[in-house]
Amino acid sequence: MFNAWELQFGIDLGTSNTIIYQHGKGIVLQEPSVIAVRQDTGEIQAFGAEAQAMIGRAPGSLEIIYPLQEGVISNYNWSTAMLQHFMRKIHGRAPWFRRSKVFISIPCGITSVQKRAVEETVLHKGSNKAITIEEPLAAALGAGLPVDEPMGNMILNIGGGTSQVAILSLGGIVASRTTRRGGLSIDKDIIEYVKKEYNLEIGERTAEDIKIRLGTVIKPEPGIRMDVRGRDMVEGLPKTVTVTSEEIYKLLDGFIVTMVETIRSTLEDCPPELAGDVMEQGIILCGGGSLLKGLDIRLQEETQIPIHLADQPQECTALGAGKMLEYDVKTGKRSASSPAWTAPKSDAYSAQEESV
Ligand SMILES: Nc1ncnc2c1ncn2[C@@H]1O[C@H](COP(=O)(O)OP(=O)(O)O)[C@@H](O)[C@H]1O
Ligand SMILES: [Mg+2]
Asked: What Pfam families does the database record attribute to this sequence (predicted)?
């Protein structure tokens, strides 16, 4: 016998990646939040990893789109279609979300209209309940922080489109800051740098590759280099240049300055007791961008605050949304009263959807 009554999902709808956790199964899907759309018909040609593989290689008639930009649903229909496709992938042909409870993480500071759009995306297909949770809270839970205690915990989540710093205590967000610098802004800086330094035009995927292979924020050993292929901007022909880790190291200074500044201003915003807790307990790093080499060491050097990299930095948010499900199972009523939750004002709405 299996419990067919209600499926439970924790979803991290990120600007770069969508990660889905299913209660009882673990992480069941991890795909880039990308689609490829045919320009003539507006039809979606590919989703996720398949669409991502087309970046920089798509013919003129295909447009590559990130439906979530800077953590916000920039196109409601495309976001819905993408999420629907991912759920189908998990469920096979069964109606997705039917009789399910979904916790979905949303970025801190989005408008109520955008929040509503996220909930509707999920409820639209018949989920019983869609509860949005703020991403820092989900990430902190996923990283194993004791967010319910009367103690200040700080988390820095470096995603694709944005990075967020948040201080949490007693299950709620006390202070937070979001910056538009994240993994993607580093890729853009690399594209600009290679253009200026070598007169070479490179694509997004190449830039990300350089970041992952050469990127470091602590002084690299000499001799770490990589051949980079692109198009010569003067002659218009393919050309290969060699980029060193040292160059990327220097380039990343600006990113570090922004992160340190964001941490400082969030600390300034919160009560002194909580700031004291953070100085003592340290900061948890998570998000794909936190995999940047040496980030914990460098940030600790710059801020003089202990920095810890989360166990599964990129999966934290989905895991945390999943933990939220388990909390609900255990305590039953937590959702209505706790400040940690965005109240599920959508109950009536979902009942109505369910009867359709
Ligand atoms: N090893 C790595 N080093 C540096 N950046 C990385 C690494 N792996 C992934 N990233 C970056 O992490 C970002 C995605 O992080 P993620 O937390 O999944 O974003 P989001 O929450 O916005 O979907 C991308 O910009 C990606 O390039
Ligand atoms: Mg994220």
From this structure: MreB_Mbl
